[in-house]
Amino acid sequence: MTDRPSWAPQGIDLTVPSVSRVYDYFLGGSHNFEVDREAARVALKAFPGIPKIGQANRAVMRRAVQFAVDRGIRQFLDIGSGIPTFGNVHEVAQAAAPGARVMYVDNDPVAVAHSKAVLADNPDAAIAAADLRDPRSILEHPETRRLLDLDQPIALMLVAVVHFLPDADRPAEIIATLRDALAPGSVMVITHATLLGPTPQAQRGVQEAYQRTTTPLLMRTAAELEPFFDGFDLVEPGIVPLPHWRPDSPVTEDDDTAALHGLAGVGLKA
Amino acid sequence: MTAGPAAADGGGDHGPDHDAYSNLRRFVTIWCRAIYSVTATSMTRGEFEAHLIPQAAVLREALRAERFDPRPAVGVGAALVDAHCTDPEALPSILGVIDAYLVLYCSPGDDLPADQARIRCSRLQHAVAVGFSQALRERTLAEQESLSRAALGAQAEAERALAASEAKFRAVFEGAAVGIGIADMDGNVVEINQAAARMFGGEAHIRRRNVRDWVHPENDPAIRGLNGELMRGERDGYHIEKAYMRADGSVLWANLQVTLLAEAAGPPQYQLALLEDITERRGLLQRLRHQATHDALTGLPNRALFFERLDQALDPDGTVTRIGLCYLDLDGFKTVNDSLGHAVGDRLLVDVAERLRECLTSPDQLVARIGGDEFVALYTDPPGLTAVTDLATRILDALARPVTLDGRDLRVHGSIGIVYGPVGSRGAADVLRSADITMYRAKELGGNRYEVADPDADARAITRHGLTNRLPEALERGEFFVEYQPLIGLENGAVLGAEALVRWGHPVHGVLGPDQFIPLAESTGQIVPLGRWVLEQAARQARTWQSEHPGAGRPPRVNVNLSPIQLHHRDLVAEVAGVLDETGLPPGSLCLEVTESALIGADEDALKPLRRIADLGVAIALDDFGTGYSNLSSLRWLPVSVLKLDRAFTRGMRRHPADPVDLKIVEGIVSLAHSLDLTVTVEGVETRAQAEHLRALGCDHGQGWYYARPGPPEALHRLSLADAG
Ligand SMILES: C[S@@+](CC[C@H](N)C(=O)[O-])C[C@H]1O[C@@H](n2cnc3c(N)ncnc32)[C@H](O)[C@@H]1O
């Protein structure tokens, strides 16, 4: 992939399930094709709680955006933004702070095309087709430059995307590159799949399901996520299961335990 | 039913509205609890509850309405779908809560009979279900449609980008100045650009060919296996200079870079060749290199190339184990050059060079011109010494035929020094010096021959060689000086003058006599400045003697030797006149001695300068008379006034009785000389007996150890004083 000249586009193969469309299916959306649903069903069979994780993930994302807005942040860089469904970052942010600017980035051309359509009338939000593994191409993207002022604090959203980067891609270095471009006062939000809950077997089932996509999934523990926050101060309560990150209301038993299988953490760049 | 919420509505401080509202809230709380967990919303539970209140209110109003109309409930189903309650499993929960609690919490009370309420509730559930299903179907369709549009858009975008990149690639491919060729893994050419077609002189020439077909004799065999290694994955690519056959048969030299092309992560499918036409650059470089390494006149390799090859051959890490080297110096070339001019000399060299080239019989032999008339033949790994001496013989034979230029036959001979031996510790300069020295040895042995170097002979010749090279410097540094040997009048024993004899006070070898360096000076042409210098010295000295002995009989005169080379020097006459002028020496006090061999056979042109000098009043002596085979009758035509008899004639007179034949000969010569008005001087007078005989035979002057050895000018002074006294 890196051998391709930068102007050579990535081909689109709709016969291979895509992470963003599978995720959309988990969220109850219909922005998906049968191959995606098929892959999703395989994963669901292994671990039926996945949609709850997705839901909890979206909820954490919403709370984290609110957290950033409360801190006065009006700019968002959402990498791995996926297919817009409901409660997207720009909706939450712009509802809380009209005029907030949101830059979306995804490497899935269908997700990008869909986002373009959704954002067509929104002057304060845009989408770029770029890859997290090439962070400079994101920072230097003309749309990023146009929309965001990196001299001012931003919220960097890495929501349910870092778990698609194997260690070989050196995720810590990628994040450090992004971090170095951030102004002090910026926040970084990471949510990530974790081993916590399901049995190893179920775990393997989910991972196998993702093997079918172009982007296999990786589980990491809270300790393994810590290095990603290098250069950030983790805000309370640290890296915790999704529902435990600054919940709106006390977590009750009838909240699905499946959501514990995702981790969330927010760092503040000093 | 007593504990039912409807009953509670009636009492306490709460108004009916408030009670109705809190009942509605209760319904919503239950409803929310039932469906929140199957709803994929990011709303919090509280938000979701708040979101459900208007929907519950719609249901309540419909339930309570005077005229029942279930249609608003359709909107409730749709609103739930809008709130991402899209899981089909959610519907039973949604309806279940309505069924169980709507009438309980939202009934208008006694206004509506219980069975009516039930029927209404059922119909509302139905309406909600319809709304839900419809909305879900619409939403699904909408999302599918938007997704498909996005996918199509993305695909179109990707295709556009692909087309754009393809177009860019095409533009780059076709417009590139470098040649680009693509071949499959079997070597079949599938694609070439215009530049490549141009380079090869036509597209048809390369299309549908196989890269393996391109063999060219000029290519290094070492590059042959490269493509195979590439195909077998033993290398990623290669970069070489390669020769190709153009369509018209001429050679194309290309700077070639070949790499493999693979789709994404798959195995390589194509080989990509980038070609840069370097034919001209290479030609130019070769021309430049040829110019830098070849002699412009003869076209032979020059000194630089010769040394390059010799260094290569001598490299202990190289492949050569033995070398043979022939160092050739042309005998007589200098004379041609001096007498016939450079143009002729140059043509002679060109001819010689051509002959030398023809002497080479295999590619391991090289002949180079390394100096004016010096050539070397280098033979790498000769089979034996004989092979090298054969080469030398071929060279000598080639030179044996005279060179005909403008109808004139010019003869040049060669002297060759051969070095032969294993490659070892010797450096190129060392080897060449040894060959040079050996060549001199061949020259000394008469020339027109070769000699093979041996270390002893080298040692002997080294001095000679060194001397030759040092001559010009020695003259500049004043290392030469002149000694004088008195000339005695045999009649009365008076000192008449002296012969000037040049010496070299060599800083290393001590005082050297003329026979040790004059031939060298002659062979290098250095004799001209040296002879001029001696003439000046001698004339000045004679003038000094004369001023020191005014009026003491005849003024002392001085004899100076003239080399045949000087005789051919065109400024000779002017120089002699100039020296006489400068020193104020009367011409009659100068005698120039010329060897017999230089004059015999000389034509009138060659004698002309001598006649001019004689015309000045300068005496000319025929030196070493009797050694050649001179035609005595020719003496009358020569501008000569003195005969100097060679010492060979006096040898037989050293003792009494003298050799009668010698006596007879000398007597005859003397009488002939006198009859031609020539004075006779005898050299090598060593004994009193000789002196007596010679006087008796009528010789005029004598010279030799019997009277005095050559010595400093003051010695003559003392001698003549003694003589006077
Ligand atoms: C699970 S979705 C997350 C969407 C959204 N951030 C959320 O949490 O709801 C992951 C998204 O990340 C994208 N993605 C995966 N690897 C990526 C990469 N290396 N660079 C950019 N996007 C990537 C996928 O295309 C997909 O849309």
Automatic annotation (TrEMBL), chain B:
It comes from the Bacteria. This is Diguanylate cyclase/phosphodiesterase with PAS/PAC sensor(S). Residues 165-234 form the PAS domain. Residues 321-455 form the GGDEF domain. Gene3D superfamilies: 3.30.70.270, EAL domain (3.20.20.450), PAS domain (3.30.450.20). Residues 464-724 form the EAL domain. Residues 238-290 form the PAC domain. SUPFAM superfamilies: EAL domain-like (SSF141868), Nucleotide cyclase (SSF55073), PYP-like sensor domain (PAS domain) (SSF55785). Pfam families: EAL, GGDEF, PAS_9.
